[in-house]
Amino acid sequence: MLPPIRELDACGIGFVADARGQASRAIIAAALRGLACVKHRGAVAADARSADGTGLLTPIPRTIFGEATGVAVLFCRGEDPRPAVEAAAADENLEVIEWRTPPLDLSALGDLARESIPNIVQVVFENPHGVLDERRALRFRRRIERTTTGVYVASCSFRTVLYKGLATADHLADFYPDLADERFEGAFAVFHQRFSTNTLPTWERAQPFRNLCHNGEINALWGNENRMRGRAELGTEAAGLGPEELFFPVFGAEDSDSGKLDSAVELLIRGGRDIRHVMAMTVPAAWENVREVNTDVRGFYRYHSALMEPWDGPAGVIFTDGVGVGACLDRNGLRPLRWAVCEDGLVAVCSEVGAIDLSGHGSVRRGRLGPGQMLFVDPTRGFLDDEACKERIAAAAPYARWAADGFYRLPAGEPTLEVPEDLTERQAMHGYTKEELAMIIKPMVADAYEPTFSMGDDSPLPNLAPRGRPVSHYLRQRFAQVTNPPIDPLREKLVMSLRTMLGPRAPLLSESPDAARMLTLASFFLYPAGVEHMESVDCTPWPVGRLDASFPVADGPDGLRAAVERLATEAAAAVEAGLGVLIVDDGAAGVSGRAPVPSLLACGAIHQALSTARLRSRIALVVVADDVRDVHGMAALLGYGADAVCPRLALATVAAEADRSDDGVATSPEAQNRFQAAAEAGVLKIMSKMGISTVDSYRGAQIFEVVGLADEVVDVCFTGSPNVVGGIGWTELGHDVLARHEAAWTEGADLESPGFIRVRKGGEPHSKDKDTVQALNDLTLVQEETNGQSRDMLVAHVLQAAIRSESSDRYEAFTKLVGDRPLIELHDLLELVPASEPVPLDEVEPAAVLVKRFSTGAMSHG
Fold first, then answer.
1. Could you tell me which of 372, 381, 291, 369 has the C-alpha nearest to residue 337?
2. CA gap 208, 202 in Å, rounded
3. Which residue from 369, 323, 325, 328 is spatially nearest to 347, judged by alpha carbons?
4. What is the DSSP letter of 545?
5. What angle do CA 252, 253, 256 make, to 5 degrees?
6. What's the CA gap between 643 and 426, in Å, rounded?
7. Rounded alpha-carbon distances, angstroms, from residue 152 to 50, 84, 93, 345, 767
8. Backbone φ and ψ of 164, nearest 5°
9. If 0-12 CB within 10 Å is exposed, 13-18 middle and 19+ buried, where does residue 640 land?
């Protein structure tokens, strides 16, 4: 008999509520028991009492804190924050009436939790005018954060109070005696047991946060952060929240992914939206390809897609605005949430069945949330299911009409039938190779899918390669590495979306028809005809401009950096001039004496410069990239800010190959359509590998690691991307561009076959080329006796053979093989330098001591 399957891989979340909004001690007690029952979903330290984090969010118990008061919970480390906090309160016309130190029982904590505990303070405040204004409370919190150091504001509200920390789930009420006080009552309680998958446990990162708790990962986080960072304005003044500068940056630098989602949700709520409305904006259901979606609900999603990209990734979320409480799942439904509604009005939602005791509450109606679904407990209307929630938010405004009237559907264009006479020269100028034509582009056209190769790459890293490489080769895709279930873009295509919008974005907190004045595309992929159509006068409600992504060859290698800086400056000027779409085009490069700026450098520099200047949301970037011919290159452009991509030269190449083909496989238009299908399918595959379902979420997310570029390039074009090893700079990249340009426009120019992909004599070195493999065979095909039986040693076991046989000759042969080969990998640069003085043996720890510090929880450390 197989053992039972246990879900022990993610956080435990849940809430308990009274459907009529009646506060009672029983609600708090049930939530504490439910929290204790999801203890297994977290982790504890070796002391068995220090946890990854647990917490409870409830309405403020008035019997303890008094009527008409607000409470700010502070985790303080460092100087006394009282003067700054009281000044912040005065700025908001609030009065601090008590500095309360909640009773704490430190014996309920483990040693590690006690060592890191902050000074926990509850600031009780009131509005002299008696108005319980949550917007004022938000501004109070933001002022505290801006004027203090070492202070984390766990919660600040006239409605809710938060108790959280590194206590274990079954000892939270022991640590906070307030929670065990019979006077502590509430109409609902939200609870969370953390399993730290991508950040180390800290008191501040324990959940719930101010409005939600979350089980899962926000895989699109970097894109969400970058999009928020680049917004020209939030619309806080118009929404009645106050000055914009008080809310930038929106996210705290040390917040986890869940914490940043909470900050976005809080801003949207205080900006005037209902909490259900906000959750449907940030974690929308799949609607683009699902026919069964209600028309008005579809219109709601269409309209809001122009304001907010999905916070995509596996997510179960419990949320509250301090009045009602609800739950929702991501569009894939990759986290469990079960609900139960009892006859007497008790509502329980949890990631586990049976965590909350429902006995004695009458008959029970049960269910589970499906992908993209939501439920809500409204004290005025009771328990509301997904349909009721969605119908309510869709009826708040005529979103469907706004979307229908505002969005203009832009055709991607028809396949181009024109092939330039200087096709070969242009291919050479942009680094095309014969093997790319044969092994990448041709299979994409034949099968409408990108080709499949064996895993691994044994060619040199791009900065070590003897020939110049495309800039995309310096970027390595990252992938989801924690507890994500896999996404299959084929079987789960209903939740996947390549839908793209072009144009300036309205302020995030706005709610008007103007937000929908945008162009919509079925995909990021554009044909040249589509780009030209975009520039027609009657197509867009705002001007469209072009930037020349080329520079004079006469400027030399330094001309590349100057051109990139010029592009960034011109892009900012275009925004200030009111343009809505900017086309970055390298078509001016050629025999005219101009060299192309690699599209990734041009796009990345413009995107980063506009984001830093908080202008990015005002304009869309369309990149006409003659150097892009594979899926990875297109994904990199999207990842670094391109809204749409037109691989013009690749399409011309496909057309030329189809026209000269005599096998009748495809005509030119059909071949280009297949190339498009392969590119789109490949990008979907890359997104799904990261656990992201929509290109809106992937765009600008920078889910890459840089290998082989110097900081001077990364800081300008790929700001914030991990860049551990460094590499070549602007001058070397400029030399590469000019060398390709010179080779291309020399008489009789032809494409190289350098052996990037497969081993070729005289081409790029490979760590497993024929000569090396043969040499290894000569060394290792020796007979050894093992228990009376002979065996051929494997090629990969040269080093092991030298160690087992204690043969210095074999080891010398092994080191010669490795040392004599060309530079290929990073470890080829490693040089062991003898120490001037040996380490005394009595200072070397024994292996038995060292292994005690080894970590078996590497996944949980991220």
1. 369
2. 13
3. 325
4. E
5. 80
6. 25
7. 20, 13, 22, 36, 51
8. -150, 165
9. buried
The pLDDT assigned to 57 comes to 98
Query: Rounded CA gap, 456 and 459, in Å?
Result: 9
Check if the beta carbon of residue 579 is closer than 8 Å to that of residue 534: no
Predicted structure pTM score: 0.91
Report the alpha-carbon distance of residue 9 to residue 217 in Å, rounded: 12
Distances in whole angstroms, Cα of residue 390 to Cα of each of 299, 336, 393, 494, 563: 11, 20, 5, 19, 49
Lowest mean pLDDT among 457-461, 543-547, 751-755: 457-461
Of all residues in the chain, the percent with pLDDT exceeding 90 is 70
Closest CA to 756 of 414, 525, 472, 385: 472
Residues identified as active-site: 11
The helix (H) or strand (E) run that includes residue 87 is helix 82-91
> 35: alpha, beta or left, given left = phi > 0 and alpha = psi -120 to 50?
alpha
What phi-psi label fits residue 755: left (phi over 0), alpha (psi between -120 and 50 degrees) or beta? left
Distance CA 626, CA 682 (A): 19
Q: Which helix (H) or strand (E) holds 552?
A: strand 550-552
Q: Are strands 119-126 and 70-76 parallel, antiparallel or unpaired?
A: antiparallel
Task: Name the 3-class secondary structure at 76.
Answer: strand
β-bridge partners, 374: 328
Give the integer Cα–Cα distance in Å for 293 and 360: 38
**C-alpha dist (Å) from residue 752 to 99, 294, 368, 444, 513:** 74, 55, 59, 20, 53
**594: part of which helix (H) or strand (E)?**
strand 594-596
Handedness of CA 299, 302, 306, 308 (dihedral sign): positive
Instruction: Enumerate residues 6+ apart whose C-beta is below 8 A from 191.
Output: 13, 14, 15, 31, 32, 34, 35, 38, 54, 55, 56, 57, 208, 213
* Cα–Cα separations (whole angstroms), residue 76 to 85, 113, 153: 12, 15, 9
Those residues with Cβ within 8 angstroms of residue 521's Cβ, 6 or more apart along the chain or in another chain: 409, 410, 412, 499, 500, 501, 502, 530, 644
For residue 97, report the phi and psi dihedrals to the nearest 5 degrees: -105, -15
Distance CA 8, CA 41 (A): 5
CB distance 20 to 345 below 8 Å? yes
Name the token pair of 817: 């093989």
Lowest mean pLDDT segment, chosen from 152-161, 258-267, 473-482, 588-597: 473-482
C-alpha angle 608-593-660 in degrees, rounded to nearest 5: 90
The 3-class secondary structure across 701-764, one letter per residue, is CCCEEECEECHHHHHHHCCCCCCCCCEECHHHHHHHHHHHHHHHCCCCCCCECCCCCCCCCCCC
Report whether 201 contacts 53 (CB < 8 A): yes
- Mean pLDDT confidence for 756-761: 83
Q: Which of 111-115, 380-384, 824-828 has the lowest mean pLDDT?
A: 824-828
